[in-house]
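Narrative progress, year one. The postdoctoral researcher (J.K.) led the effort to move from monomer predictions toward full complexes, under supervision of the PI. The following entry was the first complex the group processed end to end, covering 598 residues in total.
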Amino acid sequence: MPLPIRITFLGTAGSAPTKERNLPSVAIEYDGSTYLFDCGEGTQRQMSTYSLNPYRIKGIFITHIHGDHVIGLAGLVRTLALTKRTEPLYLFVPKGEESKVMPLLTFDRALISYKIIIKGVKSGEIFKGKGFSVMAFKLKHSIPTYGFAFKEDDRYRFDKEKSKRLGLKGDAFSKLVSRGSIKIRNKTIQLKDVAEKVMGRKVVYAADTRPAQTTIEAAKDAEILIHETTYTDEFRNLAKERLHSTAAEGATVAKNAKAKRLIIFHMSARYKSAEPLIKEAKKVFKNTTQAYDGMQITI
Amino acid sequence: MPLPIRITFLGTAGSAPTKERNLPSVAIEYDGSTYLFDCGEGTQRQMSTYSLNPYRIKGIFITHIHGDHVIGLAGLVRTLALTKRTEPLYLFVPKGEESKVMPLLTFDRALISYKIIIKGVKSGEIFKGKGFSVMAFKLKHSIPTYGFAFKEDDRYRFDKEKSKRLGLKGDAFSKLVSRGSIKIRNKTIQLKDVAEKVMGRKVVYAADTRPAQTTIEAAKDAEILIHETTYTDEFRNLAKERLHSTAAEGATVAKNAKAKRLIIFHMSARYKSAEPLIKEAKKVFKNTTQAYDGMQITI
């Protein structure tokens, strides 16, 4: 059985926080560890509000170095040091932007009890965990920006009957998966004859960005695409100018990617309610939900 | 009639935020302007939660450059720029610590639409507003730290009958106040004979600190002393070691200063309830209140 992937929306606002919405951050919990995607101001408190343990964070993936997506790092790394954490923390930022994030970690010369390993992100696989990997893909924003795909490893579902008949047991299964074929009782067994490939589930996070072909490719058949939609179509020129997406544009990306579900977030503070955004997106892509702070989805 | 001074506790936690308490910040509203004392992470959102307009902020007074008291500046100064503020913002930090706060303002090279005027704080009057001033006084903490006294100007209450009889009118009142005496109808009038001096109200903010003689002096007869009390007496050695105060110590400062009221805050996250702190403080100084996030007092 695949492990649950739990997604928690810690912050769903646009560039300024509101009473109801904190600045962007999405947590993915998998196999006892937590990974953050963006870390807006107040993320550590949101974790406590929604009962996520910050000490379980293994890696933080920052899309781009705009204040509203990154300032929460400053407080979080210091709080993690309060209990003398020793486990290293992986911090991913767009390649070339490392020097912009450093001041948030070092400004007051605080003693950090653990290593913060900063990795410059380029397109492709950037992190390999047990049973999953994280891929980065380029986005279209005013400064270097990457989206991220959290992807479970593909796995093989073996035909029990057939496997037994052919004498497969013990580590023969994993050998067969890694090699593609093995010999048992002088007979060559092909993986594809005895097992069916099951694609790993994929959760894709894209902010801040114009609609992009790279997102469509990364979100191909994804269980969930989380896409920023800052404006409604009425402000499509503003969206272009400021390099954000409208609700219709985000929904079109989901549709073209054949994603199973779209979650939109990062709405401009001009909207008192998410209603116009969700209405607009649903016209293009029916299975759309507007994220709210504290929303949790387990797949 | 004196103008109301409204105090809002935006954050009352110790070094890490909790579900109930955000990191330290106290707002004082006076005559249409807002002044912040400390600016922990999430302060801008707390302002929106408790319906304070961040665009009214004129000055921010930072006690010391420890992350939990200062990180909120990073997001706040950027949000203030979103609406193209042009009015300068005064930012007070302990003298010599200016270079530590700068990275929070500049890390991502964001365009700030207004001037941030950074002033290095030493003991004495550091800001003069219309009808009030702010004084700084040294505190005892692990790095350079100052407390602040928000003090209304002293004023004079004139005896109406006597003033009329002596022929005082128009700008003669203000002339008499500034000079101490004036001549009317060839007769010298002494200020003290016709008016009674009314001391301006004082609100004093002291965090983070050991109990200090400087606080006692600054809080002399204050309407309100806001003092950190991180621990109960049980942890008095920890308080000494980490240069914080116990509830009993904070209360002793209030008692020795003959303050009218003590508000304690900044409690360690080890306390699930403020009960033990408030109980301990009240034994020493009866008129003590434990601050909570959103608590407002108008004097």
